[in-house]
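Lest this sound abstract, we let one protein speak, letters for residues, whole numbers for local backbone shapes, and leave readers to judge:
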Amino acid sequence: MSACRTIFLIVCLLLLLPGCQRDTEEAKVRKVIMAIERAAEEKDIRTILSHLSKTYHDSRGYDFNGVKGLLLSYFFRNQRISVYLTNLDVTADSVSARATFQAVLSAADKTGSAVGVIPDALGIYAFEVVFSKESEEWMVVTSTWERLGDAPLGKAQ
């Protein structure tokens, strides 16, 4: 009887073991990126900004408030927003992380007709996002992005 009990306890421990594993820093950063993606589709500015450092600044001159204004403008102009991320690559250590990915962004009005299926705006962007740990949370501190496919016709990209 004690052998069966021992085997049962070992099986139970093995089943519980995956729940005890901690997320890697890369996995935590990926979760932040996915949360921002969902929030963008839901037009949830508060959630997006909760992942943006108050010290955010990028090479285009945007700071925290500039990004907030950019989001408000984009969300106001577009009733429906869709985000699809691809080629996500994350590297992280204990204090900083970097993510590169491509995002397909589309926007359309909700018309209730078949016309509403076709996006009014569509763009593919390459992003590089830098994170830093602030109070044990990964926060976006800077980013760069460029629209892909905007080269003049006949030029290699």
User: Anything to note?
Assistant: The first helix runs from residue 2 to 20.
